[in-house]
């Protein structure tokens, strides 16, 4: 055995094995003689070789196996020289032999034995010169052959010099710390003023905290203690969100949202952001401008705010993403969503052009009003509904079977788009189509722009005042709603020139979701509108900064109230004093304005006035009319002249109709007013005396001798019946009777006499 041979024989045997394994010169065998200055250090490192003494010489062979996993295997050999006597002291030279092998993976059985060996490298002081001769040999093909030859001859067990050594407690260097920590190198020789660095490798298990003591033994000196602490932990972090909701943003301004990344683990890690934005994509679509900081090393329990800068674009809803890599963990996908829109303002006025839009456009607008978009709008308007579910109205709806089958029951709390939402959605679609046709418009759009988008006007609003009385003011209060997403101020366009009879009050600055009132006053004058009726139409524009132009059309009919009558004058004719004649005169409002009228008389006659207006005032709407009744009851025999004057509210002009009438008194002149019969015998022949009646009037008169006129008695009965039938009124109007003709036959037949 190699262990029973003396040192020269052992070295010769090793060299012989090496020479056989490597017939070519050894390139990787170091056989360098040390200078004499190093001999002293070598001598102090061990006992002095004297005759009759025995020593344990240790030969260190280091084999480095360069494999894919960079495993370094140390091989130790121990030479037992207890029974060898040194004949002379060797102190002149010291020789280091270092075997470095790079090659294939060691065999399994060899590796198992090598792992059990203690790594050792020690100087061998000898005067043997055969190893020096081996320095010229090539060592390229040693590799596994040397291991196969040398390892079996190196005994891993050495005979103990002292019998009781096994009874002493040995240091326990085995343990879990040996699996967690590794030292490279774990031993060595330091020359004078030499420094060597030892690499401590930490190979922890998952989530542990360890504290170890490293003992550095100095041969012949004190032991130094080094405390090693270490921790291992998985990467843990907190992310406030993985889906950023930018909500509703203006298209021309970059939007910023923040992601908070917090390192909750006790070890640092770095993160990196990866963007996948196409450089030649749609210029109107949303895109991620930047993510800052792009990458960073987070210390334990450190927090960082990652700012995401996004250009919302004009296409409305956008959904994009980027990748976030945290340490060695899999990539995370961060989603971004929101809406890029134009600043919009809504007026509480009707729009006639909406009905002319195509059904496809309207359905497209309604489809864009998703629940998430309506929720974002409700946040701007801060709408909060509290609807009781047990109200009688709701209970009645759910109990009605017809409503359950044919109707969908919805309340104010349901997310349904309003007319404002639909109209503004149509406006956004029209705006995007306009920009797609003229993309050069967006070149001049900036964040500080105060002008609206060039060459685009939305659907016009209409203010219809209806009929406005001239010299009066008509006021229209318009509610202006800021639909968001930014503060804005509605202003009158510089291109709009308002007429003198139209006034528009300015609108204050509005926050998103708020509203204000704008007063638009129409005040026509008679100088500007001399006609009785005149239709007028004008328009002006409101402007929204970085938004659209809002045309407003104003329509009105400027008119004055007036009435027309198809009677040019009123003539009562000749009326017997005491009689009453009634005339009905038609009166109609043919204008557009509602007319409030008053009728008065201007008569050139002493009081009392013989003419009475039965309905002297009233209000006629457009197209209304009625009959005005006038009665003439002369009390004197004279000619009556005057005027019937109609006055109209809010109209300085008047309608004047002349009135004439004659009051006559029937008279008769009796010729021979005294009749004297002489004395006459009874039952004698009749005697007649005549008297004459003369009509001095210019109209026929009727003479009645009641005690002899039979018709008179019938007429008195008719009058009594009429008084009884009408509960004896103050007056009864009868058809006009011609003198001598009596009552009309229709009246006589009605009475039945």
UniProtKB/TrEMBL annotation:
A single GO BP term for this record reads: axonemal central apparatus assembly
Lineage top rank: taxon: Eukaryota
Do you know which InterPro entries this protein is assigned to? Hydin-like, Ig-like_fold
Please list every transmembrane segment annotated in the UniProt record, as residue ranges.
Answer: none
Q: Which Gene Ontology cellular component terms are annotated? A: axoneme
Q: How is this protein named in the record?
A: Hydrocephalus-inducing protein homolog
The organism of origin for this protein: Eumeta variegata
Which gene name belongs to this protein?
HYDIN
């Amino acid at each position: 055995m190699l262990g029973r041979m003396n040192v020269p024989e052992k070295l010769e045997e090793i060299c012989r094995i090496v020479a056989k394994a490597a017939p070519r010169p050894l390139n990787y065998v170091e056989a360098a003689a040390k200078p004499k200055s190093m001999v002293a250090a070598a001598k102090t490192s061990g006992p002095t070789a004297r005759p009759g003494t025995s020593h344990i010489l240790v030969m260190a062979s280091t084999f480095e196996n360069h494999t894919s996993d960079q495993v370094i295997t140390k091989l130790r050999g121990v030479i037992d020289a207890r029974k060898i006597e040194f004949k002379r002291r060797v102190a002149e030279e010291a020789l280091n032999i270092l075997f470095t092998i790079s090659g294939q993976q060691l065999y399994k059985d060899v590796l198992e034995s090598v792992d059990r060996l203690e790594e050792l490298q020690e100087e061998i002081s000898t005067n043997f010169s055969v190893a020096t001769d081996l320095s010229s040999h090539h060592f390229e093909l040693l590799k596994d052959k040397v291991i196969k030859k040398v390892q079996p001859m190196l005994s891993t067990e050495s005979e103990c010099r002292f019998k009781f050594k096994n009874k002493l407690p040995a240091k326990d260097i085995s343990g879990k710390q040996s699996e967690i920590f590794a030292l490279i190198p774990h031993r060595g020789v330091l020359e004078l003023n030499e420094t060597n660095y030892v690499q401590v490798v930490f190979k922890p298990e998952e989530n542990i905290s360890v504290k170890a003591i490293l003992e550095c033994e100095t041969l012949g000196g004190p032991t130094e203690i080094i405390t090693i602490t270490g921790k291992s932990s998985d990467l843990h972090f907190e992310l406030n969100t993985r889906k950023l909701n930018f909500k509703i943003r203006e298209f021309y301004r970059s939007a910023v949202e923040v992601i908070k990344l917090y390192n909750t683990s006790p070890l640092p890690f770095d993160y990196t952001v990866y963007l996948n934005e196409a450089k030649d994509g749609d210029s109107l679509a949303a895109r991620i401008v930047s993510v800052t900081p792009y990458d960073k090393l987070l210390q334990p329990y450190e927090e960082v705010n990652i700012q995401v800068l996004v250009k919302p674009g004009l296409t409305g809803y956008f959904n994009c993403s980027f990748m976030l890599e945290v340490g060695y963990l899999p990539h995370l996908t961060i989603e971004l969503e929101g809406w890029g829109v134009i600043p919009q303002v809504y007026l509480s006025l009707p729009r006639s052009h909406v009905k002319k839009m195509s059904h496809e456009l309207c359905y497209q607008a309604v489809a864009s009003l998703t629940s998430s978009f309506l929720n974002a709008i409700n946040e701007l308007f801060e709408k909060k509904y509290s609807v009781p579910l047990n109200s009688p109205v709701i209970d009645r709806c759910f109990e009605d079977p017809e409503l359950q089958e044919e109707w969908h029951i919805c309340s104010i709390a349901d997310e349904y788009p309003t007319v404002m939402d639909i109209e503004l959605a149509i406006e956004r679609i029209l705006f995007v189509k306009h920009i797609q046709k003229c993309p050069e418009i967006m070149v001049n759009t900036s964040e500080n722009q105060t002008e609206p988008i060039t060459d685009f006007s939305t659907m016009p609003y209409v203010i219809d005042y209806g009929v406005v009385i001239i010299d009066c003011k008509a006021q229209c209060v318009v509610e202006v709603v800021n639909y968001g997403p930014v503060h804005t101020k509605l202003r009158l366009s510089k291109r709009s020139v308002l007429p003198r009879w139209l006034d528009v009050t300015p609108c204050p600055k509005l926050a998103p979701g708020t509203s204000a009132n704008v007063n638009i006053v129409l005040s026509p004058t008679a100088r500007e509108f001399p006609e009785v009726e005149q239709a007028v139409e004008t328009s002006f524009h409101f402007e929204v900064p970085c938004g659209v132009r809002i045309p407003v059309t104003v329509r009105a009919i400027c008119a004055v109230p007036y009435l027309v009558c198809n009677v040019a004058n009123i003539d009562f004719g000749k009326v017997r004093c005491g009689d009453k004649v009634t005339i009905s005169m038609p009166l109609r409002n043919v204008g557009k304005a509602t007319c409030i009228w008053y009728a008065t008389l201007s008569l050139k006659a002493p009081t009392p006035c013989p003419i009475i207006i039965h309905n002297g005032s009233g209000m006629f709407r457009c197209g209304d009319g009625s009959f005005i009744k006038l009665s003439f009851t002369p009390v004197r025999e004279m000619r009556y002249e005057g005027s019937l004057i109609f006055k109209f509210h809010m109209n300085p002009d008047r309608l004047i109709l002349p009135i004439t009438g004659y009051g006559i008194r029937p008279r008769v002149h009796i010729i021979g007013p005294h009749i004297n019969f002489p004395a006459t015998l009874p039952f004698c022949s009749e005697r007649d005396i005549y008297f004459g009646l003369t009509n001095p009037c210019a109209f026929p008169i009727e003479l009645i001798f009641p005690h002899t006129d039979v018709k008179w008695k019938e007429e008195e009965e008719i009058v009594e019946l009429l008084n009884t039938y009408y509960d004896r009124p103050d007056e009864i109007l009868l058809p006009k009777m011609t003198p001598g003709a009596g009552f009309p036959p229709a009246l006589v037949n009605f009475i039945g006499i």
